[in-house]
Design a protein that fits this description.
Oligomer: single chain
Distance between the termini: 67 Å
Helix content: 25-40%
Number of strands: 6
Mean pLDDT: 92
CATH class: Alpha Beta
Number of helices: 4
Number of domains: 1
CATH architecture: 2-Layer Sandwich
Length: 169
């Protein structure tokens, strides 16, 4: 086989990882956990998943195979990078790897690293997956997001009222 006809190295693995992510998310949609579930392929093997979950606004989860990342894009709008709220959210997220948490609630640093990215006051949640542990990663980013919104309900309820139209009752 000539060099021009060879597939890029790692392509079958990327396809397998995409299949894992897709099947896990589709399972949630099939069970009715996600509503209005859609997916869209992007260049470079990137897949964008959109669905409604937890709040009434659609969420965007992006699978980035070349970066080995799962990203909830613009998950939290209007959170300035230098704000007290962003500092508290960052500390909360850092605490999700603490060994005092039960394993099912903890981000195991051998499997993934969780972080935020704040661009123009829009916060994305990033899970960098290690060792191709995408089944672990998809479950973990969903758990983190669920816990994050629980944290917001307990500590930043006015933010949820303003940004997500959560009822004040």
């Amino acid at each position: 086989m000539t060099a021009a006809k060879r597939k890029p190295a790692g392509r079958p693995a990327e396809d397998r990882h995409a299949r894992i992510v897709r099947e896990k998310l589709q399972g949630y949609a099939d069970r009715g956990v996600f509503r209005a579930y859609q997916e869209r392929a992007r260049p470079g093997g990137v897949i964008e998943f959109r669905f409604i979950w937890l709040m009434s606004k659609p969420l965007v989860l992006v699978f980035e195979p070349l970066e080995h990342r799962l990203v909830f894009k613009n998950l939290l709008p209007n959170v300035p990078a230098r704000s007290d709220m962003y500092a508290k959210l960052s500390a909360y997220l850092a605490g999700r790897s603490d060994t005092s948490l039960p394993p099912h609630r903890r981000v195991d640093p051998r499997n993934a690293d969780a972080s935020f990215e704040n661009r123009r006051s829009s916060v994305s949640l990033i899970l960098a997956v290690k060792g191709n542990r995408y089944a672990y990663g998809i479950g973990k980013i969903l758990n983190l997001t669920n816990e994050l919104f629980g944290y917001l309900q307990m500590n930043h309820l006015p933010y949820l009222w303003e940004e997500f139209d959560v009822s004040q009752e």
